[in-house]
Description:
By secondary structure, the protein is an alpha/beta fold. 48% of the residues lie in helices and 19% in strands. The longest helix is centred in the last third of the chain and has 31 residues, at 166-196.
Amino acid sequence: xxxxxxxxxxxxxxxxxxxxxxxxxxxxxxxxxxxxxxxxxxxxxxxxxxxxxxxxxxxxxxxxxxxxxxxxxxxxxxxxxxxxxxxxxxxxxxxxxxxxxxxxxxxxxxxxxxxxxxxxxxxxxxxxxxxxxxxxxxxxxxxxxxxxxxxxxxxxxxxxxxxxxxxxxxxxxxxxxxxxxxxxxxxxxxxxxxxxxxxxxx
Length: 202
Protein backbone atom coordinates (compact mmCIF):
# COMPACT_ATOMS: atom_id res chain seq x y z
CA UNK A 1 0.00 0.00 0.00
CA UNK A 2 1.19 3.53 -0.71
CA UNK A 3 0.64 6.75 1.17
CA UNK A 4 1.69 9.58 -1.18
CA UNK A 5 5.24 8.46 -2.11
CA UNK A 6 5.87 6.47 1.05
CA UNK A 7 5.41 2.73 1.37
CA UNK A 8 3.15 1.37 4.07
CA UNK A 9 3.19 -2.28 5.13
CA UNK A 10 1.14 -4.21 7.67
CA UNK A 11 3.76 -6.56 9.13
CA UNK A 12 2.01 -9.50 10.87
CA UNK A 13 3.10 -9.73 14.50
CA UNK A 14 5.54 -12.61 15.03
CA UNK A 15 5.70 -13.69 18.70
CA UNK A 16 8.96 -15.56 18.02
CA UNK A 17 10.69 -12.32 16.98
CA UNK A 18 12.33 -10.38 19.83
CA UNK A 19 12.29 -7.30 17.60
CA UNK A 20 8.52 -7.55 17.06
CA UNK A 21 7.92 -8.11 20.79
CA UNK A 22 10.04 -5.07 21.72
CA UNK A 23 8.40 -2.83 19.11
CA UNK A 24 4.85 -3.81 20.02
CA UNK A 25 5.54 -3.56 23.76
CA UNK A 26 6.92 -0.02 23.39
CA UNK A 27 4.00 1.16 21.25
CA UNK A 28 1.39 -0.46 23.50
CA UNK A 29 3.00 1.23 26.52
CA UNK A 30 2.89 4.58 24.69
CA UNK A 31 -0.79 3.98 23.89
CA UNK A 32 -1.55 3.22 27.56
CA UNK A 33 0.35 6.30 28.73
CA UNK A 34 -1.46 8.56 26.25
CA UNK A 35 -4.79 7.19 27.43
CA UNK A 36 -3.72 7.65 31.06
CA UNK A 37 -3.13 11.34 30.36
CA UNK A 38 -6.51 11.57 28.62
CA UNK A 39 -8.70 9.52 30.98
CA UNK A 40 -6.74 9.28 34.23
CA UNK A 41 -6.85 5.49 34.34
CA UNK A 42 -5.97 2.23 32.60
CA UNK A 43 -8.11 1.58 29.52
CA UNK A 44 -9.38 -1.75 28.12
CA UNK A 45 -8.23 -3.37 24.89
CA UNK A 46 -5.53 -5.86 24.00
CA UNK A 47 -2.72 -5.61 21.46
CA UNK A 48 -2.37 -9.40 21.25
CA UNK A 49 -4.50 -12.42 22.12
CA UNK A 50 -5.29 -15.81 20.66
CA UNK A 51 -8.48 -14.45 19.07
CA UNK A 52 -6.79 -11.39 17.54
CA UNK A 53 -4.85 -10.73 14.35
CA UNK A 54 -2.15 -8.17 15.12
CA UNK A 55 0.14 -6.30 12.75
CA UNK A 56 2.85 -3.68 13.10
CA UNK A 57 2.25 -0.77 10.73
CA UNK A 58 5.47 0.26 8.99
CA UNK A 59 6.15 3.35 6.91
CA UNK A 60 9.23 2.91 4.73
CA UNK A 61 10.20 0.06 7.04
CA UNK A 62 9.91 2.13 10.22
CA UNK A 63 7.39 1.15 12.93
CA UNK A 64 4.59 3.72 12.79
CA UNK A 65 1.83 2.02 14.78
CA UNK A 66 -0.08 -1.22 15.19
CA UNK A 67 -3.56 -2.67 14.99
CA UNK A 68 -5.23 -5.72 16.50
CA UNK A 69 -8.45 -7.04 15.02
CA UNK A 70 -10.97 -9.74 15.84
CA UNK A 71 -11.83 -11.05 12.37
CA UNK A 72 -14.57 -13.34 13.70
CA UNK A 73 -16.43 -10.41 15.26
CA UNK A 74 -15.41 -7.99 12.50
CA UNK A 75 -14.08 -5.51 15.02
CA UNK A 76 -10.89 -3.53 15.55
CA UNK A 77 -9.71 -4.16 19.10
CA UNK A 78 -7.01 -1.47 19.05
CA UNK A 79 -5.44 0.78 16.46
CA UNK A 80 -2.57 3.09 17.38
CA UNK A 81 -0.44 5.44 15.28
CA UNK A 82 2.66 7.08 16.74
CA UNK A 83 2.31 10.87 17.09
CA UNK A 84 4.95 11.68 14.47
CA UNK A 85 3.04 9.65 11.84
CA UNK A 86 -0.44 11.01 12.52
CA UNK A 87 -2.42 13.07 10.03
CA UNK A 88 -1.17 11.02 7.06
CA UNK A 89 -4.14 8.69 6.62
CA UNK A 90 -2.27 5.71 8.06
CA UNK A 91 -5.17 4.43 10.17
CA UNK A 92 -7.48 4.58 7.15
CA UNK A 93 -4.97 2.66 5.01
CA UNK A 94 -4.60 0.06 7.76
CA UNK A 95 -8.34 -0.49 7.79
CA UNK A 96 -8.32 -0.78 4.00
CA UNK A 97 -5.66 -3.49 4.36
CA UNK A 98 -7.87 -5.33 6.85
CA UNK A 99 -10.83 -5.13 4.48
CA UNK A 100 -8.97 -7.43 2.08
CA UNK A 101 -8.72 -10.10 4.79
CA UNK A 102 -12.25 -9.74 6.13
CA UNK A 103 -15.42 -10.30 4.07
CA UNK A 104 -17.50 -7.94 6.22
CA UNK A 105 -17.05 -4.26 7.00
CA UNK A 106 -15.03 -3.77 10.20
CA UNK A 107 -16.24 -1.76 13.19
CA UNK A 108 -14.24 -0.10 15.95
CA UNK A 109 -14.61 -1.65 19.37
CA UNK A 110 -16.02 0.61 22.08
CA UNK A 111 -15.10 2.49 24.19
CA UNK A 112 -13.43 4.84 21.74
CA UNK A 113 -10.90 7.57 22.32
CA UNK A 114 -11.60 10.97 20.73
CA UNK A 115 -9.25 9.93 17.91
CA UNK A 116 -11.17 6.68 17.48
CA UNK A 117 -14.48 8.54 17.39
CA UNK A 118 -13.13 10.91 14.74
CA UNK A 119 -11.79 7.97 12.71
CA UNK A 120 -15.14 6.13 12.90
CA UNK A 121 -16.98 9.24 11.74
CA UNK A 122 -14.47 10.03 8.97
CA UNK A 123 -14.58 6.49 7.55
CA UNK A 124 -18.26 5.90 8.31
CA UNK A 125 -17.41 2.89 10.49
CA UNK A 126 -19.74 1.20 12.90
CA UNK A 127 -19.03 0.79 16.60
CA UNK A 128 -18.84 -2.72 18.05
CA UNK A 129 -20.28 -2.65 21.54
CA UNK A 130 -18.79 -5.09 24.04
CA UNK A 131 -20.99 -7.76 25.58
CA UNK A 132 -21.85 -7.43 29.31
CA UNK A 133 -19.44 -10.33 29.95
CA UNK A 134 -16.62 -8.56 28.09
CA UNK A 135 -17.30 -5.31 29.94
CA UNK A 136 -17.15 -7.11 33.29
CA UNK A 137 -14.00 -8.99 32.27
CA UNK A 138 -12.35 -5.72 31.24
CA UNK A 139 -13.36 -4.08 34.52
CA UNK A 140 -11.99 -7.00 36.53
CA UNK A 141 -8.70 -6.95 34.63
CA UNK A 142 -8.31 -3.18 35.04
CA UNK A 143 -9.16 -3.38 38.74
CA UNK A 144 -6.58 -6.12 39.32
CA UNK A 145 -3.91 -4.21 37.40
CA UNK A 146 -4.65 -0.96 39.25
CA UNK A 147 -4.55 -2.77 42.62
CA UNK A 148 -1.12 -4.15 41.71
CA UNK A 149 0.05 -0.65 40.75
CA UNK A 150 -1.26 0.75 44.01
CA UNK A 151 0.57 -1.89 46.08
CA UNK A 152 3.86 -1.02 44.40
CA UNK A 153 3.55 2.72 45.07
CA UNK A 154 5.16 3.88 48.32
CA UNK A 155 5.14 7.61 47.61
CA UNK A 156 3.08 10.25 49.34
CA UNK A 157 0.63 11.64 46.84
CA UNK A 158 -1.95 14.35 46.44
CA UNK A 159 -5.50 13.74 45.31
CA UNK A 160 -7.17 10.34 45.48
CA UNK A 161 -5.26 8.20 48.03
CA UNK A 162 -6.64 5.06 46.42
CA UNK A 163 -4.58 5.69 43.28
CA UNK A 164 -0.81 5.36 42.79
CA UNK A 165 1.20 8.48 42.04
CA UNK A 166 1.68 9.40 38.38
CA UNK A 167 5.33 8.36 38.43
CA UNK A 168 4.49 4.86 39.69
CA UNK A 169 1.45 4.65 37.41
CA UNK A 170 3.58 5.41 34.36
CA UNK A 171 6.30 2.95 35.37
CA UNK A 172 3.64 0.36 36.18
CA UNK A 173 1.94 0.73 32.82
CA UNK A 174 5.23 0.08 31.03
CA UNK A 175 5.65 -3.12 33.06
CA UNK A 176 2.02 -4.01 32.35
CA UNK A 177 2.68 -3.67 28.61
CA UNK A 178 5.70 -5.98 28.96
CA UNK A 179 3.59 -8.56 30.80
CA UNK A 180 0.75 -8.45 28.25
CA UNK A 181 2.89 -8.67 25.09
CA UNK A 182 5.78 -10.67 26.56
CA UNK A 183 3.45 -13.11 28.29
CA UNK A 184 1.56 -13.75 25.08
CA UNK A 185 4.83 -14.23 23.17
CA UNK A 186 6.16 -16.69 25.76
CA UNK A 187 2.95 -18.70 25.61
CA UNK A 188 2.97 -18.74 21.81
CA UNK A 189 6.61 -19.85 21.73
CA UNK A 190 5.96 -22.63 24.25
CA UNK A 191 3.00 -23.83 22.22
CA UNK A 192 5.04 -23.87 19.00
CA UNK A 193 7.84 -25.77 20.73
CA UNK A 194 5.36 -28.32 22.08
CA UNK A 195 3.87 -28.84 18.62
CA UNK A 196 7.31 -29.32 17.10
CA UNK A 197 8.03 -32.05 19.65
CA UNK A 198 4.82 -33.97 18.98
CA UNK A 199 5.10 -37.24 17.02
CA UNK A 200 3.68 -37.12 13.49
CA UNK A 201 0.13 -38.32 12.96
CA UNK A 202 -0.12 -41.68 11.23
